[in-house]
Amino acid sequence: MKGKLLLVSVGLAAMLTGCNSENDIGIASGDGHMTSFRIELPGKQTRAQSDVYTPTRYVMEIFQGTTASGIPLQRKEQASCTFNVSLTYGNTYTCLFWADNGTPDNVANDEYEAADLKAVKIKADASPSNPAYGGMIQVEAGVSTPEAYSVTLKHAVAKVEYIQTKPLTAGNNTLKVVFPKTFRLNVADFSTTEIESTATTHTFENINKVETETTIATGYIIAPSDAADVQNLTVALNSEPTKTISNVPLQRNYKTSIKGAFSDLYEAGMTCSLTEEWDSPENEKELISLWDGTTTSQPTDYKADTPGEVMITSASELAWLAEQSNSTNRQEFADYTFTMTTDINLLGFAWPQIGVGGQGFKGVFDGKGHAIHGLNLQTTGTQSCAGLFYCVDEGGTVKNLTVRGTVNVEYNGSSGCSAGGVAGKTKKAIIENCHNACDIFGSGTSFWLGGIVGHATNTTFENCSNSGNIQVDGTASVCLGGITGTANNSSSQVIADNVNEGSIIARSSFHWVKAGGIIGDITTTGADVTLSGNENRGDIKSESSTSQDVGEVDAGGIIGYITTAMESSGKILVNNNGNTGTVVNGNDGNYAGGIIGQARGDANCEFTLTANNIQDGIPSDCVIGYNILYDGTITVDGNPIEEYFPYPKPQE
Asked: Is 390 helix (H, G, I), strand (E, B) or coil?
């Protein structure tokens, strides 16, 4: 089940009004303008009612210039939300703000040390019971419009909630929590710096009796903004032995919930999860589930032999899916739909892959916009496939998923290795709205590598993207593509609205080397294929260390090499695609194509290219690097091609 708690963002409206007043010492000289910064913290309607409070301390620091560097020109702490200062007309100032439940100019009552807003930290031995807020604006005194002086304060901390799942029969309990890391926060950009060899201890006293599952304590901690920092916490209730809670994620603007039996009088496992905490969060994020590399657990709503929708709520349930479809259990999951409810981090542990046994995965896998982080695939020898999914087979669908990590394949077999971030190979499958951020590397003999899928047969790709880099050094045939390395089609397929942003480098000592921004190599057999609305933004290069023959080494912005099987009929439509990357054929005498590296028009086949755009890429004057005509037809924007040359033909 998803857990969400939301907060309306705190508003800070800073309104400057110029008037003829005396200058404050240290701020203005000459033509001074009195300025009023008014901090407004409107009523925060949140689902976490403990967060509804009015700060009692407001801090402002003013720096001259466009950065908050050095010592501030002026610093103020006060209980009211209006700051009156005097600034020099026409000068630019950077202003930092902080709000919490401390007492102005009385450090004894503060939970946060905010004497320097570029290095805020939690006061030693303090256990913050309320959140804190920070923000920054830049103004040009007397020149900027009133609208320029508005800023929205952001949550400056992470929230940690401790949930007791079993009864506590006595009152007046004390919970002590130790965080092994301590951070400073720079309010100017919300960056953090770890304070070496310093732990943070939170102590919560006067915890009442508990009869049912109850939140017994809530605290706040300074944590990084960009990604969750994973820590191993220690907790102790009263004088009971200390417990260790491993892999606790902590991140600014998010809530971590730790649930379990904090008392040794009851045996129960500890679990933790990370959720977005407040309304209008700066980052959208659902729960994060971490894998330990071994644990598998069957989803609670899975029913054997009764296909239906099954929720994947944890990393261990995803690992169960791989386990059940391995070469021993051989489950194919036809007619099942597996739906993710959470982001998952595999933490770099060796991934066993889904769909290894039987003919592959035949169900539907819906990521629901979630991401799988930390994918780690390292293969050697003759293993022929690598990906989150080993194989997605007939009827299988993967959609709405992002994959992040690394795929590294070393292959010395003769039949070829297929690898991709989402799947090694697919057959009669649908891949839609999937995104790969894995770098993919290959070394050895023969490869088909793609950002999404390595080798695709009769597969539809729509609204997919690749941002990972793909590179191979081979000794046999090599085909690389941002979406798929190779595609074979004997039925009508659509490959539409896909984007590649990664660099693609295909190298081999063999003569057959193909690289394309979307597809490396595509072959159709008696089928109609449409490639429409695809875009390449990455750099593409193919080269062979042995072959200098024209037509053996190909590089294209969208397709490296496209052909139909001899004597096969069919229509291939390539329209409204674009290339803005640099496409290079590394072999002398060969041309790179802005759209297609090589198009081979066999008998009974019609190639039609319309409205493709290469003006902002390299090459910007060559749509097809090389054409071969075997009684088929190739037409570009209504112009039939009749010669074995690049199109347009280079000027003599």
From this structure: strand
Q: Strands 397-411 and 439-444, how do they pair?
A: parallel
How many other β-carbons are positioned within 10 Å of the β-carbon of residue 296? 16
DSSP bridge partners of 200 = 179
pLDDT band at 226 (very low <50, low <70, confident <90, very high): confident
423, 390 contact by CB (below 8 A): yes
DSSP 410-452: EE--SS-EEEESSEEEEES-EEEEEEE--EEEEEES-EEEESS
Neighbours of 4 (CB within 10 A): 15
Calpha distance 620→641 (Å, rounded): 19
Distance CA 487, CA 527 (A): 12
Question: In whole angstroms, what separates CA 165 from the centre of its chain?
Answer: 33
Judged by average pLDDT, the poorest of 177-181, 278-282, 480-484, 522-526 is 278-282
No. of helices (H) and no. of strands (E), the chain: 1, 58
Q: CA 264, 267, 273: angle at the middle one, nearest 5?
A: 100
pLDDT band at 265; cut points 50, 70, 90: low
67-79 pLDDT per residue, tens: 999 999 999 998 8
pLDDT at 620 over 50: yes
Q: Check residues 248 and 19 and name the one with the higher pLDDT.
A: 248
Distances 203 to 122, 129, 179, 235, 318 between C-alpha atoms, Å: 13, 11, 11, 10, 36
- DSSP-based three-state secondary structure for 155: strand
| β-pair partners for 9 | none
Evaluate whether 365 touches 322 at the Cβ level (below 8 Å).
no
Instruction: Give the closest residue to 533 by CA, choosing from 627, 465, 622.
Output: 465
| DSSP symbol at 360 | -
Reported as a pLDDT band with limits 50, 70 and 90, residue 274 is low
C-alpha 209/C-alpha 652 separation (Å) is: 90
SS (H, E, C) 185-254: EECCCCEEEECCCCCEEEEEEEECCECCCEEEEEEEECCCCCCCEEEEEEEEECCCCCEEEEEEEECCCE
Q: What is the CA radius of gyration of the chain?
A: 30
Distance CA 520, CA 452 (A): 12
Q: Read off the pLDDT band of 16 (50, 70, 90).
A: very low
What does the mean pLDDT of the chain come to? 84
- 329 C-beta neighbours (distance < 10 Å), count: 12
Q: Of 459-463, 490-494, 546-550, which one has max mean pLDDT?
A: 459-463
At 116 the pLDDT is 96
Helix (H, G, I), strand (E, B) or coil at 276: strand
* pLDDT computed for residue 469 by the predictor: 96
- Is there a contact between 643 and 627 (Cβ–Cβ < 8 Å)? yes
- Residue bearing the bigger pLDDT, 477 or 82: 477
- 620 in helix, strand or coil? coil
Helix (H) / strand (E) containing 396: none
As a whole number of angstroms, the longest Cα–Cα distance in the chain is 94
Residue 284, pLDDT above cutoff 90: no
Distance CA 60, CA 74 (A): 8
